[in-house]
Design goal:
Length: 305
Amino acid sequence: MIPLKGKQGWIQGILAALMILGAWWGHGQLDLWYQSTLVSPPQDVQRANEPPVRPSNGHDQAPVEDDTTTPQPPPLPDGPKLAIIIDDLGWEAEGTDAMLALPYPLTMAVLPDGATTRNDIESALAHGHEVFLHLPMEPLGGYKGRPQVVTTDMEDGEIDELVGGYLDQMPEAVGVNNHMGSKATADRRVAHRVLTLVGARDLVFVDSRTWRASLMCEVATELGIPCAFNHLFLDNERRLEAIVERLHQAAALARVQGQAVVIGHVHPVMAHALETTLPQLVEEGIHLVFARQLALLDEVCEDCT
């Protein structure tokens, strides 16, 4: 944390505190926005009268063998650290190629069961990014689309089968974060079951915090599983100026707190905002790191409420 001295320091401290409070207030609205921005899967994948299919490896054919390996991140640097997670890869989203080509360490959260799930994972690794499973979880109000979500009325065995199948699709994943989930992440039994599966594979969890009542990092702490949580959504507004402003807010949070995890989504405006803004943030002393690195800092979440 940068020490604040004198009148200017007090003003900077007050501004930073207001940004943090504003981000917290917005959590109650995020899940409704998050659902409203979801793009429907392609028609050749989503069939209204066909029940969800959960193959063990997510493909009809055998998995493609390749020599792609999970990148090993360097030791964490001193100074403000910022981890940026990009959600919703794997479903042919516009802007995917531009996002994956960015020459910065980003965490790519890939949805399962998508037409480009496997390709996006391999491309992310080839470009030096890390991969998370973007785990679909039940929101308030319900969700019947695809990929199938983890719901609160599932038995433990059903959760095991669904989440295990999703993890099998991306063995390269080093962590998990939730897609939607305002209802499921607030259910202690579901949180415990999901996190037990995460811990069994030595993965970390990042709570997207789509709902302020989420219990994911609290339960992770009880289980001794590394957990971090999202401090800020970058693209509540999909305008370049708005996203750039949020990136600077994220940098301010990293300076005040020493570290921050933020989330954006894969689309062309997000890719353009990162391309134009990240060089400036790096020049100003912000260290871009992987989300897994921040989750592992203390091995468990120290501030889960």
